[in-house]
Amino acid sequence: MTDEHDKHDADEEAAEQWELVNTPLGEKWSGRTRYAAAMFFYKRGEMSAETLEAYRICARLDSTDPLPIIRDRGVGQDWLQRMGLK
Asked: How do residues 33-69 score in pLDDT, each as one tens digit?
């Protein structure tokens, strides 16, 4: 039962972090929120260091979307696909 409970908690946390990494641009502290959520996915091995770096660059820029930076740098293709972009 503990393993099932742990998996549920992990799934719930991942869903919450997914919402946070998709925080709308322009909201106060949204860049930092997206970066913190990106760090969660990086630590889980679901995001490359190069992709995380784009989120770090945008952390203090609430209106700047990290996804075009990721695309322009030619990194994180798997992440862009996960975000619904190519």
From this structure: 999 999 999 999 999 999 999 999 999 999 999 999 9
Range of the domain at 29: 2-83
Report the C-alpha gap between 52 and 62 in whole angstroms.
16
**HEC profile of the chain:** CHHHHHHHHHHHHHHHHHHHHCCCCCCCCHHHHHHHHHHHHHHCCCCCHHHHHHHHHHCCCCCCCHHHHHHHHCCCHHHHHHCCCC
CA–CA separation, 47 and 83 (whole Å): 12
Compute the distance between CA of residue 18 and CA of residue 83 in angstroms, rounded to an integer. 10
pTM of the model: 0.87
> Rounded distance, CA 1 to CA 56, Å?
38
Nearest to 58 by CA among 21, 85, 86: 21
Domain count, the chain: 1
